[in-house]
Amino acid sequence: MTRHIHIVKVHHLSLSFPTKKNPNPKPVLDDVDFGIRDGEILGLIGNSGSGKTMTSLAIAGLLPENAEITGGSIKFAGNDLLALDPKERRAMLGRDIGMIFQEPSTALDPLMTVGKQLEEILTAHKDPSMTSEMRQKTITDMLELVGFTNAVEILGRYPHQLSGGQRQRVLIAGAALLKPRLLICDEPTSSLDTVTTVSILELLKDLCHKLHMTILFISHDLSAVRGFCDRVMVMKDGKIVDKDVASEILTNPKNSYTAELLTNARLDTRILGLEPATVDYSTSPVLTAKGITAGYGRSLFERVKKKAEKKDTNILHDVSLDVYPNEILGLIGGSGSGKTTLIRTLLGLLPHEGSVKIKSSSIGAIFQDPVSCLNPSHNIKWHMSEALRASGKAAKGTDTMARITAVLEECGLSAEFLSRRPDELSGGQRQRIAIAMCLIQKPALIIADEPFSSLDASSSAELLKLMTDINREHHTAFLLITHNIHIVRQICPRLIVMHDGRICEEGTTTDVLNNPKSESTAALLEAERQIHGI
Amino acid sequence: MKSKSGYIIGKIIELILTLLVVSLLVFIAFSVIPGDAARVMLGPNASDSQVELLRAELGLDKPLVSRYFSWLLGIFTFNPGVSYSYSIDVSELIAQRLPVTLGTSAIAMIMVIIVSYPLAILSARKPGRLGDQICSVIGHVLFAIPPYVASLLLILLASSVFSLLTVGNYVKPSDDFFGYIGCLLLPSFAIALPKIAMSFKFLRSSIIEQQSSDYVRTSKSHGLSDFKILIRHVLPNSNVSSITIISIIMSDILGGSLIVEQVFNLPGLGRLLLSAVQGRDFPLLSGIVFYIAFITVILYFISDIASSFADPRIRLK
Amino acid sequence: MEQKKTKNRSPEASIFYTAGLIFLGIVVAAFIISLFWTPYSPDATDAASKLMAPCLEHPFGTDNFGRDVLSRVMSASKYTLLISGAGVGIALILGTITGVLAGYYGGIIDRGIMLFGNSIMCFPGILLALVAVAVFGPSVGNVIWALGLVFAPTFARVCRVGTMEIKELDYITHARIMGVKPLRIMALHVFPNLTSQLLPATVIGLANMTLFESGMSYLGLGVQPPDASFGKMLSDAQAYIRVAPWLVIFPALMLVFYILGLYFISEGLRVGLTKGGKR
User: Fold this and answer.
1) Topology of A325-351+360-532 in CATH?
2) Which domains does chain B have, with CATH numbers?
3) Strands (E), chain B
4) ipTM above 0.85 for this complex
């Protein structure tokens, strides 16, 4: 097994989906030509529809039935795959080629225990010499290899009893069980949080060495392959447009499309010229929360039941915080740290112990998902007047309309949006409508929960600019929850870090980011650094 | 972790509550009836004193709450009282007629399952192919034919094409078991037809949905054969959702057989119900209604328990 | 993705719509024409022309009283449309109000409403309707009320599940934060988003209600003679099924056309809405 020998050689491969109406459609893969070297980790990057998944399915032999290979060949360890019959190709799956996919939550059969599902792989590739005990041993060994310390216990678990990261580990164990030479990973981390992502990538790298596997790593996010892949290919519209050593592509992209992908992957706030308002910490806070303890399932019935089971269902434990006028307060924390529960409590949506005091009556909020933030049954005018009406500050007729258009204009939207419906708007526009709805109520504080995470770089930059403008001109305070350290560094003077339902660190942003005092903050920052490269 | 027994106990409490509400509904329905049962029984020429006497005899003069509890006690001990018009115990009357209704329903249910399952699996294998489309169109049409219309059409077909004239002679199971099954075949088929279509449609779409799910893709990437994936993953998963549909179909079949019995002149619960309605025989009527609802409640209960066995997500929260 | 979402129906959906509208159109046309004109009076007996097979004068034949079957079929469509329409209306109003309340508030209100609804659904629908009519006497009004009550839980379920999903969406959270009153949220923020689920359920409800109504009329507990209804015509025809099959075939066809038309339209709605929603 010397290096630079191609384990997979894709030779001028073309593929399309012909239909009766259109027998010669635009090809999905157009003359794709590359090799995967033995032992390397090759990244395949592209936006959705670029053909990266089809390429991997073609290698695995799992193409949809209506796909037609119109030219080229695929060789695996010297054998022409396209010449093999379906039965032989199927025998290769699991044995020579393993695969893992994007959604670990649905990729395991919910009705079958982990042990049974893994055993199925061994029985499908019949090895008569293997006894039942040997199979169990192989499976537990592999589960331990992918990082389970309680492998025997995991065998009897059902998928819904595992976390997302655990499920992805089980799936990796399944794909690697028969020690295939090639492991195809199709966006394996895109639905996992940063800390889990880092650990999964480490595991894959580790397996790659221990089992002498080659990895084809597919992702839409160019920055995600940093420090993980040896080589990277970039795909666009079914063609490979760029191909180079990973470090070269990430630091010095020669192709213009690759460069575009790179800038999209990171939101650079330095060029925006953001000017948040200055904060006077001697004034009284707009929001004071003291000793908040909260959790779900707090109806009387469930509390009695939980008490009997002696379980602590609280997600937040004794959380206290202040938000000052004019301030943009940053809040970061890993998934499950209680950020979402905290905001829901602050917004008065959850029952809780402890006190929340808000200076002004109204408090606005924008959320992560730009799709569900607006009611699809109504147009923008309805949304705005409903917000105005609810604030109790509604005036009559033309005055109302004037206010609505003024606020919209401030948020960078012209009056022609009034008659539009939410499904006619882009994600960034919808988030701006959501802000406009807050703004029209003249709140002292707006809580923003990961507002950038589903927007592209340019929409995020515009939204960020809008938020700082509002902060400066209306003296509106913001509580900003985000995982983007860049943004926090640029606009938040003060930062709070949450872990396991508690505030584990609080201080000026530079202090917290440069000298993290708690272990969990350090781990969080380290993971962000690896993935997003601060 | 919530245990399986905890889930079952919760379901049993729900079952008892439902039965109580059902009994209350039935009782209230027959207590607010316009017209006095005693007067109806005695006819318009009876004197007031005669009516009073009968009311006392039937217990109609007691307060509503105590009447409810004595009725409830009677109905749960399978002793709901004496029929006004037949002067026999209601439970005895129902027991006589039950074999027809239950037999028809059971045969119809078996027909639904043995026809719709294989067809759905075959159809879902290659969705959009000619065979699948033909099945789907036939399914839509059958779905729209009311069971009693199907019965009439079957009778028409049987008499004109096969010159069968013996439609509608009931044979007791104790006399000749195969004769009993034989005489119920045609009515069962008539009830089953639209339900076969319904079950086929549901199963087919459920199998297609499961086939495109992520875990099937995982299994394919593990090198499992299509047949193995179908048997071990697709069908068990589609069964989880079809258990509920099957229980709804069972309840529909039971309701359908009440009417179809009438078309085929079978002495089942349907005919008894109709005569109870016409004779305003309320002990009989309330008995039939409650026991049919009772059977349905038990069916739903069994389907809930079956789902919990089929799906670990329900029993291990 | 944003701009394309104008009404581009999938070809599958339009086949269903067209077929459904044709079948439904036949029955509705028969009803509308019958309001102004029928070939003969639907109740006019004619001893000279009993049990005549379909011919030029009587395209659908005549029955055992010499009444023209075509005229009777046309006037029978009136009750089918009236009862299914009014019954679904009642069920829709009752079901939507209780379902949205149960779904929005959850907890004890939800449990109470659903226990009651589930209990009603434990009776095979036809049984409950039969009993209601048996108790209050057979009349068109009672049939409508009975069927409306029997079908209400179905709509309540649809609304409850839909409301529970919508309640969790950000725009409802927004409305709650903004301080919109719960009743206003339910009526103006939640309800309009339920229509995509309620519409197919309504069409299916019309079809199922017709199944029940005709079954009840068949048993003599629905529309009362001398008014014509499909169910009653079929039950009268049964005695003559061997000598005059047309007495069965034409009312049965009309009945099946109506139900089939509704099924096709609901299928079209389902296909169209789910495909449109996913994109």
Assistant:
1) Rossmann fold (3.40.50)
2) 97-279 (1.10.3720.10)
3) none
4) no
